[in-house]
Design a protein that fits this description.
Layout (H helix, E strand, L loop, with lengths): L21 H5 L9 E5 L6 E6 L3 H19 L3 H17 L1 H12 L3 H26 L2 E3 L7 E9 L2 E5 L7 H4 L2 H6 L3 E5 L5 H14 L6 E3 L4 H11 L2 E5 L2 H14 L2 E5 L4 E5 L5 H13 L9 E7 H16 L17 H16 L3 E4 L15 E4 L6 H4 L6 E7 L2 H8 L4 E2 L1 E5 L2 H8 L6 E4 L4 H4 L9 E2 L2 E2 L4 H7 L1 E9 L12 H15 L6
Parallel strand pairs: 5-6, 5-8, 6-7, 8-9, 10-11, 10-16, 11-14, 13-14, 16-17
Antiparallel strand pairs: 1-2, 3-4, 4-20, 9-19, 12-13, 15-18
Length: 524
């Protein structure tokens, strides 16, 4: 069994977040209903605070207020909007201790994992805040007739965007899509997961301090089964991060209204360890890729395929490092507990099913109630077959299976043996890794890294294929997603149809000659 640390390292209990005025944060919710629900910490079972239970009526009212505020916001210059977002990034860094306290209290984050979110928001705010005006400015394109036709494409905001964010990255994913939506001139109604509302509310409070009008961004809290459909019924576009099953339902609802739908959904991400990979360096990277945020990472690695030439050395190095992982929530901890009893049940169920069907646990494999009500050891499995749940389903916890392969074509086939297509990782010689990356049917590929290199490249689009979602966050795409392109063409000198004094036949001959001439002019 595992040598995982026998005590929690620097645990931050829920009552340590008591210095944060959660009552003040709860007052930011777009509802004055007396009904509330407690938010329970996965660290110690304590109450972090209480938030209102919103209804469909609250959603409609929130969208109406955001829509009213959006009209003035759309008339604000992109540069002015960008200045607000850059100020927001500065405030996030200044308020990082409070934000990390909340991420620990609500999601069980180890301190370093909580800071990863803080840093990501600050970097994203910087990138979006500096490039938005270039991406969104009107763009001159080639017109119908050279010189005579002046054609411009403008980007107009859609109106009000709904953002439904998850519990696993309660800081980053609350605002990753909210920032580009605001920069594009939209209002936003945000519904954070019921388990982590205070992280979202604390960030919205900072947005208000940065200069975002209070009615432009509204927060609703409550059950997703009721609020999700209500949001779709009211907004002009929806961003959802969560399960594939829920994503399909929301996509159908958005389709009926013909509104934009973008989603990052599930994954069963693979790592390929090629001949020539350094076993020690690769093992260190694999620990981060598999066990950051306790494995509760959409782009995290759950399957590792290792070439025969380096298999034994890699497994030895990897298991040694996993066995040394410290479970807790302080700065000295390597990973925190799972975020809920539901997640713990899923993880233990996958491990139990695998072992019962013949898989072997190399390290870990057990729940650790002595380290917290939802703690589970980081776990490495071998002998996993396609009939096991852990091979087919997204575990979303600190469990990874290791497999051996001979030729890289075999590894590619195994990596593709899943309906998902979110992220992949390849370790080894860069030339071969690049060639294999081009053959992987996934949205992002990290070479000699697990997932951070692509995620943190905010200038590049990020998202999945197949059952892992549609649309993209980050990059130019995330700004353009929440706009409607409008083409304005000004015709000068000559009419765009028949020329005066020419018969239809003569006009056709003149245009034929003109088109032949225009073919020699490079298109813009």
């Amino acid at each position: 069994m595992s040598d995982v640390a026998q005590r929690a390292e620097g645990v931050v209990p829920a009552d340590e977040a008591a210095r944060i005025d959660t009552t003040r944060l709860a007052a930011l919710v777009a509802s004055d209903r007396p009904a509330t629900r407690p938010v329970i910490s996965p660290v110690d079972g304590g109450v972090v605070g209480e938030v209102p239970v919103c209804t469909a009526e609250d959603v409609a009212a929130a969208v109406a207020r955001a829509r009213e505020a959006q009209r003035a916001w759309a008339d604000t210059s992109v540069r002015a909007r960008a200045a607000v977002i850059r100020r927001f990034g500065v405030l996030v860094l200044e308020d990082q201790d409070r934000l990390m306290d909340l991420a620990t209290a609500e999601a069980g984050k180890a301190r370093k994992d909580a800071f990863e979110e803080v840093g990501d928001i600050a970097l994203a705010a910087r990138w979006f805040g500096h490039v938005a005006h270039r991406v969104l400015r009107p763009r001159r394109v080639a017109g119908y007739m050279p010189v005579a036709t002046h054609t411009t494409v403008r980007r107009r905001p859609k109106g009000v965007i709904g953002v439904i964010s998850p519990w696993n990255y309660p800081l980053t994913l609350a605002v990753s899509d909210l920032m580009p939506a605001l920069l594009a001139g939209n209002g936003v109604v945000l519904k954070p997961d019921s388990q982590t509302p205070f992280c979202a509310l604390a960030l919205v409070e900072l947005l208000y301090r940065a200069g975002v009008p209070r009615d432009l961004v509204r927060v609703v809290t409550g059950p997703g089964t009721e609020l999700g459909p209500a949001i779709v019924d009211e907004v002009d576009g929806l961003m959802f991060t969560g399960s594939t099953e829920t994503g399909r339902v929301l996509a159908q609802q958005c389709g009926r209204r013909l509104i934009t739908f973008s989603a990052e959904l599930g994954g069963k991400n693979a790592m390929l360890v090629l001949p020539g990979a350094d076993p020690e360096r690769t093992a260190e990277g694999a620990v981060r890729a598999c066990f950051s945020s306790s494995g509760q990472v959409c782009v995290g690695i759950e399957r590792i395929f290792v070439a025969d030439a380096v298999h034994d050395a890699f497994v030895e190095a990897f298991v040694a490092r996993v066995s040394a992982i410290r479970v807790g929530t302080g700065w000295d901890a390597d990973m925190g507990p799972l975020a809920s009893a539901k997640q713990l049940e899923r993880v233990t169920g996958h491990v139990r099913d695998a072992v019962e069907q013949g898989a072997t646990v190399l390290t870990g494999g057990r729940a650790r109630p002595d380290l917290g009500p939802h703690a589970h050891e980081p776990t490495v499995l071998v002998g996993v077959t396609s009939s096991m749940r852990v091979a087919r389903e997204e575990t979303f916890g600190p469990v990874v299976s290791v497999h051996r392969f001979g030729h890289h074509d075999e590894a590619l086939d195994a990596a593709h043996d899943t309906p998902y297509g979110l992220n992949a990782s390849i370790w080894g010689p860069v030339g071969l890794a690049r060639r294999l990356a081009a053959r992987l049917h996934v949205g992002t590929v990290n070479v000699n890294d697990g997932y951070a290199a692509t995620w943190a490249s905010h200038a590049a689009p990020m998202g999945g294929t197949r059952d892992s979602g549609m649309g993209r966050r980050h990059g130019r795409e995330s700004l353009l997603t929440w706009t409607e392109p409008q083409t304005v063409a000004v015709q000068r000198f000559l009419p765009s149809t028949y020329l005066p004094g020419l018969t239809a036949e003569r006009y056709a001959r003149v245009m034929t000659a003109a088109i032949r001439l225009w073919r020699r002019v490079p298109a813009r």
